[in-house]
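Hi there,

I know you've been waiting on this one. I reran it after we fixed the sequence typo, so this is the corrected version. Both the input and the resulting structure follow.
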Amino acid sequence: MDFAGIVELINSKFGDGFAAVEEEAAPETVQVSPSQWGELAPFLREGESLSFDAMMCITGIDEGAESENLAVVYNLHSMKHNHKLEVYVPTPRAAPKVPSVEQIWRIADWFERETYDMFGIEFEGHRDLRRILLPSDWDGFPLRKDYQFPETYRGIVVDKMKEGWE
């Protein structure tokens, strides 16, 4: 099934305009709200015509100071039908929350934990949402554009090579 057919199938199930096509985004990308993602994810996995059985990646995005949003991008693939889909889910920077899909796609467990660790996006319903790369007492989320790198951690100077960073 091609991208237009996937979008048509989604919108026929959930209503016209449910999955907005992002013209300026990567090809084969739809945008949904966090609450819509909670409804859409099981349908994408279990729908016989779709069968998105492989989650390839979850990526967090900080859209920058001019935006009030962070976002989560999901890359899905159907092994059965050999089609793909990217789902873009914006969430407010002030309280970033997206429904967890770790019980739908098991690989999402670690992907969601990494996104939480680096961006501070909470995945509601995740069974074990905690830091995976940084110590549990680390302050802040390093991949946010407004993150201030600490000078010390537990009294130890955190040396940072500054050549080529600025």
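Quick highlight: The chain has a mean pLDDT of 92.

Best,
R. S.
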